[in-house]
Specification:
heterotrimer, A alpha+beta, B alpha/beta, C alpha+beta, A: alpha+beta, two-stranded antiparallel sheet, 3 helices, 3 strands, C: alpha+beta, ten-stranded mixed beta sheet, elongated, binds magnesium ion, binds zinc ion
């Protein structure tokens, strides 16, 4: 497992789309460093041949048949939208 | 407040409603009055639609008058942690991000409870997006522990625990990802049940960590918890992780199951960091079961005790970093005024909308999933999780339940741990492994510290064996009178 | 220096389902903005996904049609990235366990001429996986508007090996793939509606070089001919860069089909680290033999297999199979007519030549045509039985197409039966010989050709109804 120093706060803040102040970056780096140091202990566990557990219980093929049910009326759908126009959500210009 | 309506159990209130000694409107008015009297200090509520609740109470009284009562929950007020969707009501997750969000739909548990006539009463405070163990991470205000207003109620469902303890409503819903129902229940001296993963639908529960989250009841008695669980449990086609399990009449089962039971005591759950007063109270509870004829056997859960917190903070934060990506200020939620373009919109809306703990966990979760770290952190954590589940399964093969403290200490002071995330995380040391294993767990009051703070006994059960778990808890509860003590507010 | 191109395609195809991939609100195209949405589509707090069984059936069908290996177990992963058309800011997709692995698309390259069948070859597929579509962004001058109707539509991503060598091969692949998927009922593959979208990865290398050159991704190829034009243009562009001594930069370029030019898309300045992990909200999928078998039973004959069958069993020429095969209703029509008449080739002639022409001229669909397989079979029988000549048959067909009457009735009504009444024929011949003594003399002098003039006159007199064989006999007899 990698050392806590590997935590690249700028890279992560960028991926997570969080604008952080330098003060926040320092604070979080320190605090997360402690936590990453704490989880280092998992290195001690022998996990050879162990299946990773993605779900609390292993169940397969949970689906519904293909039938359409009514959705939200457009006014309900957009009732919490910060900005809307012509029944669509307005976002600032998307730069590719 | 001993003979006050607001300290009676839901089943007692239901009986009074049934016999006409009490109307649902009177009950709701009593709750509103109690809220009026104490919530300025407890601060359990984020918001409350009193008029809407009164209208539902009136409707319940009319049904009852017409002989069309829907059962014991008809007309009973139930509090909602502010993370569960109720159509037309705020759903804030105690976050600035959702401060103005109004849900256009009902959670499945909401549909089930309202169909049973229960009255959604209040949006209860919590740690932001259920991330925390003290309710201090609420973006709005901390909630105080009714037993000592200078102390935390626990968390993340602190509002629900405090409101029930303070008599603002008989029962409430919370959610539990690593102990968020059981730990505040312990710290506030009420009953809190975290069901088996998959027993209660998560549809309409704002997700923190999808593979760990479960909705469960807070109550003043085990029987009330059984009553509410019976109403919310069961398969839901809208939740792919909801289990197709039989839902027994948990209340009826309480009477049928008298033990004796084989109960395990995980020795690692009594190690360093456990407050002596808490240890003594839990040991006394264990003695009670022994005297009651239960077979008490020491068991060992070394992996759960040593690694659960580490596994939890890798898996929960990884899932959270993805689950909370939807809060971007586009379709709903806080939108920054600073944004010049769409990318900008994300950075500033999320920076302004989320509090520190949420940011910390999103960053940690992003890190453990990022390329180059996935195998070392996330994948390894999932494998250790498998080992922890197997460890519990082995122990529960010849135990009907496990007994432990719910929390290593009683309620701590507001601000005491808020600057030290790791210390805060360790307060969930006994509850977290139960979520990792997907097992049911309950916390019942088992005494008080010298300072008069409640102590909780955690009982862990077999998967989907809530009937036994509740019966084991009820057995202890009936032989003790902790419930007759009430916080002096 | 000579360069060769190496091309791989990523084809996104919307599956034909009633509801969306992970929720049961209706899927569809051309509906009013944000009317096909619900808490799941909008990623409201607390919403959860549930698989659409039909989408699984359809992608398994696609996989079986294309000869893929269907995974015994596959799972769902979250692809994490922020974009305004993606409500959850992660896409539910399949990362390391796709449902379909391998397979191939049989393609036909352009032949030496339109009437000559081109070379067939199989382009190998890497994988096909299932995911969900995103919403639609309408870019304005100062801001963008988002419509989420498309978000959550079942979408399969078909990835080919880098095994295509030309724009024509890419064109042929998409043409064949679309036929296979549309005929299988997997998708309507309407590129105008965005039901089929294609990205191409293109690189060039000197002929003989084995390692791949720097690849450029070409996006927004939203019609099959734009795919061909775009790729051809990109290959030319890369060769030009090389010849000018430049180097190809790895980038994504946007092709404008109207202007036939492409420009570099400022790659989203954010690093791509999708942080795939198994979706905890969705359970994995197990596909057993019974499930596969039940779907295999519904797979229609592959269009190229049908073409081979027509050529081998019916001896139809490529000029006819190449018209029939891409048109499934027309094939069904043809086979029905062939069954009724027992004469496939004769039927194919009328269908490919006369029927296709009349339908095109009338600007209608096959199912709107009054001519049904029974008409074709009837007409074939009349010609083969010598009741009418093939020239008369053409007239009968036109009448048939206009009125919908059966050919026998038309022939009867208009008295178009070939005349075999020897009295009538004897008289026409006698008149023709009398009218053209020169020709008669010429024949007697041994000039065979001279007969034609006389026979022609007879046919003319009979308005085409005289049976040519009988006419020949009688002329020879009278001139003997
Ligand atoms: Mg988005
Ligand atoms: Zn894709």
């Amino acid at each position: 497992m990698s050392a806590d120093s590997d935590l690249n706060i700028d890279y992560l803040a960028n991926l997570a789309r969080l604008a952080l102040t330098d003060a926040e970056k320092q604070k979080f780096s320190r605090q997360l460093g402690d936590i990453l140091h704490y989880v280092e202990k998992l290195k001690q566990v022998d996990v050879t041949g162990v299946e990773p557990m993605a779900h609390a219980s292993p169940v397969f093929n949970v689906w519904q048949e293909d039938a359409a049910r009514p959705g939200l009326p457009v006014d309900e759908a957009l009732r919490n939208a910060p900005a809307q126009r012509q029944h669509m959500v307005v976002v600032p210009k998307v730069v590719e | 407040m001993a003979d006050d309506l607001t300290c009676l159990a839901a089943v007692q209130l239901a009986e009074m409603l049934g016999t006409g000694k009490l109307s649902s409107v009177e009950l709701l008015q009593a709750c509103l009055a109690r809220k009026q009297a104490v919530d300025g200090r407890v601060k359990a509520f984020n918001s409350c639609d009193g008029a809407g609740a009164l209208a539902l109470a009136r409707a319940a009284d009319e049904r009852r008058a017409a002989g069309q009562a829907r059962g014991p929950l008809d007309g009973i007020p139930i509090g909602f942690k502010d993370v569960i969707a109720v159509k037309g009501q705020p759903l804030t997750c105690s976050s600035r991000m959702l401060a103005n969000f109004v849900s256009p739909y009902d959670a499945t548990v909401t549909e089930k409870l309202t169909a049973a006539g229960a009255i959604p009463f209040g949006r209860l405070n919590m740690d932001e997006f259920a991330m925390g163990s003290s309710t201090e991470n609420s973006a709005f205000h901390p909630t105080a522990n009714p037993w000592d207003l200078s102390r935390v109620p626990g968390g993340s469902s602190g509002g629900s625990a405090a409101a029930v303890a303070a008599g603002e409503m008989p029962v409430a819903l919370g959610s539990d990802t690593g102990g968020s129902i059981r730990q505040p229940a312990a710290l506030c001296g009420v009953v809190g049940l975290k069901p088996t993963y998959g027993l209660v639908s998560r549809y309409g529960l704002a997700a923190y960590a999808s593979s760990l989250d479960q909705i469960g009841p807070f109550a003043r008695t085990v029987e009330d918890a059984a009553l509410v669980l019976g109403a919310i449990a069961g398969h839901d086609p809208r939740d792919s992780t909801s289990f197709k399990a039989e839902v027994p009449d948990y209340r009826a089962e309480l009477g049928r199951r008298q033990g004796p039971w084989r109960l395990g005591v995980p020795k690692e759950f009594f190690g360093e960091g456990l407050d002596p007063e808490v240890a003594a109270a839990v040991r006394a509870a264990i003695e009670y079961y022994r005297k009651a004829g239960c077979e008490i056997r020491e068991v060992s859960l070394p992996l759960a005790a040593e690694y659960a917190v580490a596994v939890y903070y890798l898996i929960a934060t990884a899932e959270a970093s993805s689950n909370l990506a939807r809060y971007d200020g586009v379709r709903y939620g806080h939108r920054s005024a600073k944004a010049r373009d769409a990318v900008d919109l994300y950075f500033h809306s999320r920076a302004e909308g989320f509090g520190d703990e949420v940011k910390r966990r999103i960053i940690l979760g992003t890190h453990v999933l990022s390329s180059g770290y996935y195998d070392a952190y996330y994948l390894r954590a999932q494998k250790v999780r498998t080992l922890i589940r197997n460890e519990f399964a082995a122990v529960l093969k010849d135990c009907d339940g496990l007994l432990s403290p719910t929390s290593p200490t009683a309620a701590f002071k507001l601000g005491e741990k808020s600057s030290d995330p790791l210390a805060m995380y360790l307060t969930d040391i006994y509850t977290i492994s139960v979520n990792l294993a997907g097992l049911p767990g309950i916390s019942v009051p088992c005494g008080f510290t010298g300072a008069g703070l409640p102590i909780g006994l955690q009982i862990i059960g077999r998967p989907f064996d809530e009937a036994n778990l509740l019966a084991i808890a009820r057995h202890y509860e009936q032989a003790h009178d902790w419930l007759n003590r009430h916080p002096s507010l | 220096m000579n360069y060769e191109a190496v091309i791989g395609l990523e084809v996104h195809v919307q599956l034909r389902t009633v509801s969306k991939m992970f929720t049961r609100v209706a899927a569809g195209y051309g509906q009013p903005e944000n009317t096909l949405v619900d808490p799941v589509v909008l990623a409201l707090p607390g919403a959860l996904p549930v698989m659409n069984k039909e989408a699984l059936d359809k992608i398994i069908k696609a996989g079986l049609i294309l000869g893929c290996e269907i995974a015994a177990v596959c799972k769902w992963d979250r692809k994490n990235y922020f974009y305004p058309d993606s409500p959850k800011n992660y896409q539910i997709s399949q990362y390391d366990q796709p449902i379909c692995v391998g397979g191939a698309v049989e393609i036909e390259l352009p032949g030496a001429a339109r009437n000559i069948m081109g070379e067939h070859k199989k382009i190998p597929l890497t994988r096909i996986h299932l995911e969900e579509d995103v919403g639609k962004l309408n870019h304005g001058a100062s801001d963008s508007l988002v419509d989420y109707n498309r978000a959550g539509t079942p979408l399969m991503e078909i990835v080919t090996e880098p095994a295509l060598a030309s724009a024509d091969e890419a064109y042929a692949l998409l043409t064949s793939l679309r036929l296979a998927l549309v005929q299988g009922g997997v998708s309507d593959c309407d590129m105008e509606k965005g039901q089929m979208r294609c990205d191409a990865n293109i690189s060039i290398r000197p002929v003989g070089e084995t390692k791949l050159g720097t690849k450029v991704e070409l996006k927004n190829l939203n019609s099959i001919s734009f795919v061909r034009d775009g790729i051809a243009h990109e290959i030319r562009r890369q060769i030009a860069v090389k010849e000018a001594g430049g180097t190809i930069v790895q980038e994504t370029r946007d092709f404008d089909g109207q202007t036939g030019t492409s420009q570099s898309l400022r790659s989203k300045e954010m690093a791509h680290d999708y942080r795939y992990f198994p979706d905890p909200d969705l359970m994995p999928v197990k596909v057993d033999e019974a499930w596969k078998a039940s779907i295999r039973a519904t797979i229609p004959e592959h269009h190229f297999d049908r073409q081979r069958r027509y050529q081998q069993d019916y001896q139809l020429p490529y000029t006819q199979t190449s018209v029939l095969v891409p048109d499934f209703p027309l094939c069904a029509f043809f086979e029905e007519a062939a069954k009724l008449s027992g004469k496939p080739q004769a039927g194919a002639n009328f269908i490919v030549n006369n029927l296709a022409a009349e339908i095109a001229a009338a600007g209608i669909e096959l199912h709107q045509s009054k001519v049904r397989p029974a008409h074709i079979a009837g007409l074939v029988k009349l010609v083969e039985g010598g009741v009418i000549s093939s020239n008369i048959a053409k007239e009968v067909f036109v009448t048939m197409f206009q009125t919908g009457d059966l050919p026998d009735a038309i022939v009867e009504r208009q008295g178009l039966k070939q005349s075999t009444d020897s009295g009538e024929l004897e008289k026409w011949v006698a008149d023709a010989i009398a009218a053209d003594p020169k020709a008669a003399a010429g024949f007697k002098a041994g000039n065979e050709k001279a007969l034609n003039a006389i026979k022609g006159a007879v046919m003319k007199a009979s308005k085409g109804k005289a049976n040519p064989k009988l006419v020949d006999e009688i002329v020879r007899k009278q001139l003997a």
